[in-house]
Design goal:
With about 130 residues, this protein is an alpha+beta fold. It has one domain (about 20-130): 2-Layer Sandwich (TATA-Binding Protein). Helices cover about 40% and strands about 30% of the residues. The chain contains four helices and five strands; from the N terminus they run H-H-E-H-E-E-E-E-H.
Length: about 130
């Protein structure tokens, strides 16, 4: 068996057995929590991306801003980097306001309380200037 075959088998097993999360199956209405802020979307993006980069494993955060649509997306890679742990979709809402849709991967070891704590931490970063991980 060559290296490519082994990788294909591992990826297939991961998806079949563990239900590896992708952006498409994390970003669903039932996984969404929405927050609104009286701040510019670029400032909110910076706070979220820098905070997550400080608080999660090195290299796990993938942050991209789309100035032409006044949106941004920050992903946290799941275990091993092959899946998505959570997604933060950020968009300008006019008049210096921003909306953030937070999508948390539904997993066997994560609870709704843990997801709510993450959303509260995010809120505290943006509104209160907290830097707590």
């Amino acid at each position: 068996m060559n290296g490519r075959s082994a990788i294909a088998i591992i990826v297939s097993l991961c998806m079949a057995l563990a239900g590896c999360a992708t952006v498409d199956n994390v970003v669903t209405p039932e996984n969404r929590r929405t927050l609104s802020f009286d701040r510019d979307y670029q400032a909110v993006y910076r706070i979220i991306s820098e905070g997550l980069q400080r608080c999660v494993s090195p290299g796990a955060v993938r942050a991209t801003m789309y100035p032409d649509t006044r949106t941004a997306r920050v992903l946290i890679a799941g275990s091993g980097g092959a899946s998505v742990g959570s997604v933060h979709e950020i968009r300008a809402a006019g008049d210096g306001k921003t909306v953030v849709d937070f999508y948390n991967d539904v997993c066997l070891t994560c609870s709704a309380d843990q997801a709510n704590e993450r959303v509260q931490r995010l809120h505290n970063w943006i509104e209160g200037g907290s830097t707590d991980c």
